[in-house]
Amino acid sequence: MFRVKAVMLDLDGTLINSAPEIASAINLMLADLNRPALPAKQVERYIGEGAAVLIKRCLNSQLDVSRLNDEPDAALFAQAEKLFFAHYANNVTDSKPYDGVIEGLQALRDKGLKLACVTNKPEKFTLPLLQKSGLAEFFEMVVSGDSLPKKKPDPIQLQHICAKLDVHTFEAMLVGDSETDITAAHAAGCFIVTVPYGYNQGRPIDESTVDAMIEDLTELVSQDLITVLL
Ligand SMILES: O=C(O)COP(=O)(O)O
Ligand SMILES: [Mg+2]
Questions:
Q1: What are the catalytic residues (predicted)?
Q2: What residue owns the CA closest to ligand 1's atom 9?
């Protein structure tokens, strides 16, 4: 049982199953660059540290795995980023929430918790996606990957949200799907709960690094994991 005033929720892989649309936009980008398409599951493994890291990994995917995060040629990267952003703008709002998300958010809000969305996704994609999927109304705050000078795994987004919501970080919980979320939550000093269905670079979550694991968002309330601090 965790005593909190606020719950922060990751977006890609926690609230929304965005990998299929991200993979198709990536493959349209690669086609424009005359490069071979990547399997959607491979693109999914590159998600989690923002658009720039995703694009770099896709451009480096033919190289030895140890060079996945190398800096590609700057002109090539700039061209790829422009193409990816243009293609992703066309399908970003097609992505859908996972089962249990709407019900889970409703139950958290009904308990009187303050809710915020924290994502490494750029803001120009985050906001339309939240609007179109019907999730925007649940959040008092949304902090995207380019809203602040740094993003997860840095704790700055979580610290910023807690300061704005007027809660201590130890009175807040992050619900996420990846080691990026776990590292950020540990650094901020908030609780971390994970879902198993998202994008953790192809690895299962290490249970010993989290406060709890849930199958879907409804379990936060149905399993009595949260007590609301007054
Ligand atoms: O855009 C990403 O890299 C991942 O976004 P997330 O932080 O919502 O999982
Ligand atoms: Mg995520």
A1: 10 (nucleophile)
A2: 12
- Which CATH number applies to 2-17+95-228: 3.40.50.1000, 1.20.1250.20, 1.10.1040.50, 3.90.650.10? 3.40.50.1000
Range list for CATH 3.40.50.1000 in the chain:
2-17+95-228
Q: Which residues, including other chains, have CB under 8 Å from residue 217's CB and lie 6 or more apart?
A: 9, 15, 98, 100, 101, 103, 104, 105, 108, 175, 195
Q: Please list the active-site residues.
A: 10
Average pLDDT over residues 125-129: 98
The ipTM is: 0.97
Which residues does ligand 1 sit against, CB inside 6 Å? Answer: 10-13, 47-50, 54, 119-121, 152
In the DSSP assignment, the letter for residue 210 is S
Tell me the C-alpha distance between 75 and 6, whole Å.
42
pLDDT tens digits, one per residue of 60-84: 998 888 999 999 999 999 999 999 9
Q: Read off the pTM.
A: 0.96
Ligand 2 center to residue 195 CA distance, Å?
10
192 beta partners: 174
Binding residues for Mg(2+): 10, 12, 177
| pLDDT tens figures, 14-71 | 999 999 999 999 999 999 999 999 999 999 999 999 999 999 999 999 888 899 999 9
Distance from Cα 123 to the centre of ligand 2, integer Å? 15
